[in-house]
Structure formats: structure tokens, C-alpha cells
Amino acid sequence: MCGCDNNINVVDLPHIKIYTSMAEYKIKESFIGGKTIFSGGRVVSWAGDMAQEELAYLFEDVNGGATFIEKIGKSTKKSNEESSIKESKKSDSKKKDISKKDDKEE
Asked: Is residue 100 situated within a structural domain?
């Protein structure tokens, strides 16, 4: 009926989308064009045009997948802006601490 009894590995797409939003995945150059058989009989042909979702699944959820795939962190404009704001807040608080020390010394 639903196919649940067939012991098929079902990938949770929202789970994989989280991985792909946080990083990019790339097949290591030395493995492109080759094939790998993972436990359970899953055969992967390492083509240069594999989908990010498939690479993310293999890297994060398949035992041994990280051997063949690189994880490249993403930097977004938003995260860069947030880090700039944090840095400016830190420098402002340091300036306040210094001025308080100067007031106490006098």
C-alpha cells in the first residue's frame, strides 16, 4: 500500500534542505568518474553534475560518504552583516570600559 514494508531508505527532504542552506558540497576531484558501493548495496556513480541534495545526503547521512565529498561553508551577506554589528558592539563596550577606568583614576 504505502511501501513502508519494503525497507526502502526514505530521505527527509526538509532535513537535507537544511544541510544545503548551510553549506555547498563538491565531489573530490580524484573520485569524479568513479563508482562506489556503500553498505546496503547503494551504488553511487561520482558524476560532476550531481545535485546538491544528493551530495549533502551522502556526506551527512551515509557512513563513509565524507571520504568522497568536500563540504564548503557558505557565507551569506546576512551573516557578514551580523558579525560586523557584533564587532562594533564589542568595540563600543571596550570604549565604555576604558572611559570608566579613566573616571576612577581621577
From this structure: yes
